[in-house]
Inverse folding.
């Protein structure tokens, strides 16, 4: 319920916008351009802080700097005025006075507003209180802010506003920018790791004539010139494997995928994946490689493999626990489950544990559903869940010891899937049968079932070497490294229902 504060806040904001518009016109009336073309900056605030950190309290540096950024705070004290200037390196205090600027320029400085962008030139000194400060001898308005920055109580508590107006979130919440920088570093380190090991980065189509590479509902659009439907990619898998067929033995893409599914704290319709394919490797090689890669990348980004996540300790130090999916389900339901367990018995177990099933599901699908509902949410430390059923793995190679299983694993950390990998199915006849089976499921109403990609089958018929492939959820990895519960915190502009 509105207790009057929000209404008053909007009224106050309207009054402030009106006053700032008046200031804008006053500036233009004086011949001052309120939106500058450029500014010659010599230093970042972080450079100044680092360089003069050892300066004694009250000491002068003798160094003249030109800074530029947004005013985040103003403190007026008669013949002196202090401001906090923020740039991408941090913040630095400015001090303006009649003595340093003259009366006319000082009056103009005092008339600045929080949110204005300015350039400021002057000498660096350290105040008696130990604050590194720029004594402003000249300044220039670079961009007039017409809206006041949000009050802290509003900007911090209104989560919807934070996501919808991320530019405000970045202004007033330093931790948001820190989290996004962790994302930047993580992507950079993943790329470095793969490049150093001979992988080649490529780009595959985002608009595809056939949605493939995963079981998911795609977004559909219509191409006017071609006169046909195209689909936003749900995965780059089938195109990357075409590269392997063509002779590219180590290939990867850090890609944007799009899935027309629900939105939650762990799902966004648009998300980032790292996907790579490695000729002559199998899923055992991939498991060891994933341990090495994440240990290297996380150490580079975070400095440690053991840290707190959601008020619990999380340790990513290899080797990680390994367990088969059937063994994990058996432990959860208290009875032995295997590929030979009749589907009716599995359905009874599901009903007994309040896990819903659907008509037409086979034993493998029911077992996987039991795992996802009873086991996955409770796996905290990194766990490699091995050997998924054939029924739910249409692109994975059959297991060498059990044809009802595939050589596929998922990495589960803190109760959610972070990576998915398998020995690739390279037999074109087997792949055709799997596609046709998926097509029957699609005709039966499963909108997420795989569509038959005949060109991909043609590619396989030319011959694909033994290959291992892995997909890593970049957003979910960054969630772990930033101690955030919601995927929206690590995506710069998450999707929301339409609003103001």
């Amino acid at each position: 319920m509105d207790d009057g504060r929000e209404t008053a806040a909007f009224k106050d904001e309207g009054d402030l916008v009106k006053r700032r518009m008046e200031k804008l016109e006053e500036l233009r009336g004086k011949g001052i351009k309120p939106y500058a073309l450029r500014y010659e900056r010599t230093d970042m605030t972080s450079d100044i802080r680092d360089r003069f950190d050892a300066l004694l309290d009250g000491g002068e540096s003798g160094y003249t700097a030109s800074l530029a950024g947004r005013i985040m705070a103003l403190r007026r004290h008669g013949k002196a005025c202090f401001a906090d200037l923020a740039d991408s390196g941090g913040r630095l205090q400015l001090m303006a006075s009649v003595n340093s600027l003259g009366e006319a320029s000082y009056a103009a400085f005092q008339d600045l507003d929080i949110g204005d962008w300015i350039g400021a030139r002057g000498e660096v000194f350290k105040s008696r209180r130990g604050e590194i400060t720029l004594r402003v001898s000249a300044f220039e308005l670079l961009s007039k802010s017409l809206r006041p920055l949000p009050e802290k109580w509003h900007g911090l508590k209104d989560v919807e506003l934070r996501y919808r107006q991320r530019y405000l979130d970045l202004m007033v919440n330093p931790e948001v920018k820190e989290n996004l920088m962790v994302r930047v570093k993580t992507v950079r380190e993943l790329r470095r790791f793969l490049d150093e090991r001979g992988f080649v980065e490529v780009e595959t189509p985002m608009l595809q004539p056939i949605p493939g590479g995963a079981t998911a509902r795609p977004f559909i659009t219509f191409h006017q010139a071609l006169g046909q439907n195209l689909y936003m990619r749900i995965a780059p898998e089938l195109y990357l494997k075409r590269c392997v067929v063509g002779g590219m033995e180590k290939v990867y893409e850090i890609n944007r995928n799009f899935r027309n599914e629900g939105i939650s704290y762990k799902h966004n319709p648009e998300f980032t994946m790292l996907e790579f394919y490695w000729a002559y490797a199998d899923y055992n090689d991939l498991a060891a490689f994933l341990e090495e890669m994440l240990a290297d990348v996380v150490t580079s980004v975070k400095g440690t493999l053991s840290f707190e996540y959601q008020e619990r300790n999380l340790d990513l130090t290899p080797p990680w626990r390994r367990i088969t999916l059937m063994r994990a389900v058996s432990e959860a339901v208290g009875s032995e489950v295997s590929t030979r367990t009749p589907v009716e018995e599995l359905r009874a177990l599901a009903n007994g544990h309040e896990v819903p099933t659907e008509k037409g599901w086979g034993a493998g699908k029911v077992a996987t559903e039991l795992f996802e509902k009873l086991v996955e949410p409770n796996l905290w430390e990194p766990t490699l869940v091995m050997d998924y059923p054939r029924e739910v793995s249409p692109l994975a190679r059959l297991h060498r010891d059990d044809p009802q299983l595939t050589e596929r694993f998922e990495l589960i950390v803190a109760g959610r899937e972070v990576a998915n990998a398998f020995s690739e199915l390279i037999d074109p006849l087997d792949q055709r049968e799997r596609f046709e089976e998926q097509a029957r499921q699609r005709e039966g109403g499963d909108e997420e079932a795989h569509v038959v990609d005949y060109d991909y089958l043609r590619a396989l018929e030319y011959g694909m070497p033994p290959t291992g492939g892995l997909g890593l959820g970049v957003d979910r990895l960054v969630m772990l490294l930033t101690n955030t519960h919601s995927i929206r915190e690590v995506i710069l502009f998450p999707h929301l229902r339409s609003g103001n």
Summary: Residues 174-320+381-489 form a domain with the BirA Bifunctional Protein; domain 2 fold (CATH 3.30.930.10).
